Amino acid sequence: MKSEDRLPLEGIRVLELGTLLAGPFTGRLLGDFGAEVVKIEAPDKEDPMRIWGKQKDGHGLWWPIQSRNKKSITLNLRVEEGQEIFKELVEKSDIIIENFRPGTMERWNLSYEVLSEINPGIIMARTSGFGQTGPYKGRAGFGSVGEAMGGLRYVTGFPDRPPTRVGISIGDTLAALYATIGSLIALQERQRSGKGQVVDTALYEAVFSVMESVIPDYLLAGHVRERTGNILPGIAPSNIYATKDGTYIVMGANADGVFRRLAEAMGTPELAADSKFATHAARGQNMKELDFRIEQWTKTMSASEALEILAEKGVPSGLIYSAKDIVQDPQYKAREMIIDVDHPVLGKFPMPGIVPKLGRTPGKVKHPGSEVRGKHNQEIYKGLLDYSEEKLHELMKKTII
User: Fold this and answer.
1) Crossing angle, helix 22-32 and helix 170-193, to 10 degrees?
2) Residue 273's domain is classified under what CATH number?
3) Average confidence score pLDDT of the chain
4) Could you tell me the pTM of the whole model?
5) Is position 329 annotated as part of the catalytic site?
């Protein structure tokens, strides 16, 4: 096999513990690029993600995406025999992903200190609401709480209404991205030292880290950033604008050169020389009047007509896409951002493509998440740990696997 045919993370084995979003999404990202991700589920309890969200014919439509490329085994980590088996798996693995409340792994005698004695190179990616240290470490923390305490929800929405949420579980997703980055950094460092380490990701910190300059805004300038709806104070034009066919387009033309092109697109090039709009500061001060003028123009045509004119003039703009718009868009198709994966029950299953795009060794979706808990028990326990058939039957009788 040529090196270009191998996925970048082939040869890396990941043990994925935990449920729902942040931990499993980390496993999905690593699996997309070739890591062997072994998802461990309890033998007596189904992962709630299997039926989370919308369903078709009794099958959850999120599970095949979140669990793609993963192998599924069952193991009871709450009992000593299951914990000892897990330690055998750790000896042959590179990364552990877990998103339990801090202290859970320690109660199971599976702390990093214990596991690193077995495998000094093991990396433990730990995602929790508030991290492994600090006065809040023992608190339960979901993504929604991380979004709130990380500062995101305070600035999301309109000023005359209560804070709102982003339409997806962005706190969990951000935490998963940081856990993935941290795992890859730890793998790189391990090449130098030969040692693993803990990657400690807190949901609220993952959100807080993308909150731009809100802290110096407050501490150095005395300004608390508030909810501003679809605008950014002092940045204009940067808003959504209604069109003749009853939809909205989003547009950003606040740079001087781009605004000149927008004025030309509108058939009013003189706007770019008007003292009320000629500079960045002036446009910010006269935002309401400028947005009104732009929307009076966009309302004279359909969204597609307006976007065509704006594209020709080089003005950043776009339709606010629904799922229907996404699946019809040629850019998504050209970039293979919606891929069909063979599902054993549902047939061709559409799911998001792989991000980022690597030029020489791109990632790959080999299969959707396993519909059967423990589907790979034989492969992992017999093939990797060399267990006999008799031992497997005994473990099943005792509900260890």
Assistant:
1) 50
2) 3.30.1540.10
3) 95
4) 0.94
5) no
